[in-house]
Design brief:
Helix content is 31%, strand content 15%. The chain is of the alpha/beta class. The strands form 6 sheets. A 5-stranded parallel β-sheet has the order 5-2-1-9-18, with helices on one face. The longest helix has 22 residues.
Length: 487
């Protein structure tokens, strides 16, 4: 739907790299404010992660809330985010975003977004905290519903005048060129035929997404394997690498969210999802123990919420653990895998790389790549705790010791479709450099900032897509205001 790089006719007010959530929001608002825009997208279509995402957003003080007599405000939204994340966010950015989100949501609804009938909701789930105030919503079409609204706006502008937004698809950013005063002058881009071209502009916005589909960057930034290929294919971290090469400071290394783990098809990228054991005590009390690669328990299995396990898993080697139990538990406990009960589960033992069974703990540990001595000692300590009425980790629900062969281990791997590490920016979304300087006419929005900016290291309902929309909107308005005052 876009043109080739071709010959540039003028210097744009802004070049936006990435036509996903933040990039589209910025482009549309920039044109509405009279700025000339060039939109560069690596894929063959606009939309980015909106093609795959659940499209969940939240805002305080929306028209939908007013219609349902729900009292809320941007300030209340901000304060509840602070509480959920324990303050592990960029407070200035989140405050800006929460001020903008109500109008973003109202605007989307005016143009066709239809929340589910019982929305907004709090986002709380068994074992997982949500908001105190219902403000979280999505459309049954998920992210594609938001994309449909943005695409309709985009197409309307292009029908009026295709030159208002110049769109170049199947074009990858390669470099950003600066002059001697460290002011960005041109984007160096490459089309599908590997033709290079300079695209000159007064300002440059990087909205290129995260790095979840780049296993090398994922391992470098998060300290463990990527495993699951569940993100947008173009989330390769290219914009992040370009800005880092120019001295941009990165942050969020301590905010990776590994989730609670899943059973995957294999332990190398790109794996696919198979199933997930019921690890939440609010859904099913645990009969099993959870051990890491050293064979050690790392959580109190019956006294944790979702975020407790997720944070603990993010600290384990390779974001990996095993759910261990014996024949007695296997035959007597409620199933932790209701989708794989009976013959389906029986067929997986020692046939699938995540399902292991053996007549001894030592042999089980070898099959499951767990330290044998550690596993044997941990099981012995767990059994001794049951006998003495005092679990080493304070667990109360211990219905059976683990002592009757065969023994079982189900491997779970922590994974994430989001990217916690990103470019550090100031309150105007300009990248900060390691030397203390600010990139003068360069901006960043969306997941390139790192998901930790708005989520911390927990589940914070509706603060990814909504945040990206608000950031793009804010940057475009800010640039238009500056342009107006400079005339």
């Amino acid at each position: 739907m876009g043109g080739a790089i071709g010959q540039q006719q003028s210097v744009y007010d802004i070049v936006i790299i990435g036509a996903g959530t933040a990039g589209l929001a910025a482009a549309l608002q920039a044109v509405m404010r009279g700025l000339s825009v060039c939109l560069v997208e690596a894929a063959d279509d606009i939309g980015g992660t909106l093609h795959l995402a659940n499209g969940q957003i939240s805002g305080g003080g929306t028209s939908l809330q007013h219609s349902r007599a729900i009292e809320d405000s941007p300030e209340q939204h901000y304060q509840e985010i602070l509480e959920l994340t324990e303050g592990r966010i960029d407070k200035a950015i989140v405050r800006t975003i929460t001020e903008i989100l109500p109008e973003i949501i109202d605007s989307l609804m005016r143009d066709g977004l239809v929340p589910l009938p019982d929305h907004p909701v709090t986002g709380a789930a068994p074992g997982q905290a949500g908001y105190k105030t219902p403000r979280y919503l999505w459309d049954e079409r998920f992210g594609r519903a938001i994309l449909a609204v943005l695409r309709a706006r985009f197409d309307k502008i292009r029908r009026q005048d295709r030159n208002l937004i110049r769109l170049i698809t199947k074009c990858r950013a390669v470099d950003l060129e600066f002059d001697s005063s460290m002011t960005a002058q041109a984007l160096l881009a490459e089309d599908e035929d590997r033709t290079l071209c300079q695209i000159k502009a007064k300002n440059f916005l990087f909205a290129t997404g995260g790095y979840a589909m780049n296993p090398a960057l994922f391992a470098e930034f998060n300290g463990g394997p990527a495993y699951l290929a569940s993100s947008w294919p173009e989330n390769l971290g290219k914009g992040l690498e370009i800005l880092r090469s120019k001295g941009a400071k990165l942050r969020g290394f301590d905010l990776h969210r590994a989730g609670t783990g899943s059973i995957l098809s294999r332990e190398t990228f790109p794996a696919t999802y198979v199933d997930r054991f019921l690890t939440n005590a609010a859904q099913r009390m645990p009969w099993e123990i959870f051990v890491n690669s050293k064979g050690e328990r790392f959580v109190c299995e019956d006294k944790m919420e979702t975020n407790t396990l997720a944070r603990a898993l993010a600290r384990q080697d390779k974001f990996r653990y095993a759910i261990v139990f014996d024949a007695s538990i296997y035959s007597q406990a409620p199933s932790g895998l209701p989708n794989l009960a009976g013959s389906k589960l029986e067929a997986l033992w020692n046939q699938h790389p995540m399902f292991h069974r053996s007549d001894s703990l030592e042999a089980l540990a070898a099959l499951a790549s767990i330290e044998p001595r550690g596993l044997v000692d941990t099981v012995a300590a767990y059994n001794r705790g049951i006998e003495q009425g005092s679990d080493p980790l304070g667990r109360s629900f211990c219905p059976r010791p683990i002592m009757k062969p065969p023994y079982y281990a189900i491997i779970h791997l922590g994974h994430s479709a989001t990217s916690a590490v990103g470019v550090e920016v100031n309150a105007n979304f300009q990248p900060l450099c390691d030397n203390g300087q600010v990139m003068k006419n360069v901006f960043a929005a969306g997941e390139i900032l790192g998901s930790g900016v708005t989520l911390g290291d927990v589940f914070t309902p509706g603060m990814m897509i909504g945040a990206a929309l608000a950031e793009g909107h804010y940057i475009a308005n800010n640039l238009a205001d500056r342009a107006a005052t400079s005339v």
